[in-house]
Input
Amino acid sequence: MLPALRRCRPGPVPLPALAAALGPGPFPGLCPGLFPGLCPGWSPRAVPARGRKSRHDPPAKSKADRVKLPPPVDPEELLVVLERYRQHRLVLSALRAEFRAEVLQKKREERLAAEGSVEELEEHRRLMAWNDEENARQRARREERLRKEEEEQKRRKLEIAEKQARKMEAFLEEKEKEVLQLQEEAKNFITPENLEARIEECLDNPRNYNFAIDKDGRIVKRTVLS
Output
C-alpha cells in the first residue's frame, strides 16, 4: 500500500471523530439512530490525501506540454502477429463449428431416439449417407480439376523454360558471331609490333581525301598531292 493511503487508513475510527472529520451536509439514507452525531442531511465529502491531486485538478506545469505518443510498432511484426491471430481465429472457429455439429447431432439422435421415431432416424441416416457420397464425388471432381490445373501449370512452365533457353541460345550465337567478327577485325589493328610496317605502307601508298562530290556522291574535283 502507498504511504499516502496508509496514512489515510490508520485503523478503525470512532464515530465522533468520523463525524468531526467529515462535517455536516445532506446525506439521504443515513440512519440517525445508528449515527446520532450526524444529521439526516449529512453527506461525506471526499477529502484528498496529502500530496495527491483530485481528478479535477489541472496537470502540472512541467507536464502541460507533454504529448503522449503510442509505443512504436514494427510493421513487419504487426503483419506477422495479425496473420497469426487470423489463423488462430480460423482454427478456433473451425473447431467450434465441428464440436457444435457433433453436439447438435448427438442431441438430435437422442431426441429422435427418445421420441421413438425410427423412420425419421432412418431418413436422417440415409440423407447423411447421400451427403457423404455427394461430398466424396465433389472431392473427386475437385482433385481431378486440381490435377489438371497442376499439369497445365507444369506445361506452361516448361514452355516458358524452353522459350527462354532458345532465346539464350540465340543470344549466345549472336555474341559468338560478334566475337569472331572482332577477332577478324583485330587482325588489321595497329599494334606496337606492326607499327613500323604500317607507317611504311602508308608512305608507299599515299591517299588523297581532299576532293569534292556532287549530289550523287561522285567525285568531281580532287586536289593533286604535292
Observations:
- The longest strand covers residues 219-222.
- The CA atoms of residues 109 and 169 lie 71 Å apart.
- Confidence is low (pLDDT under 50) at residues 1-13, 25-32, 34-43.
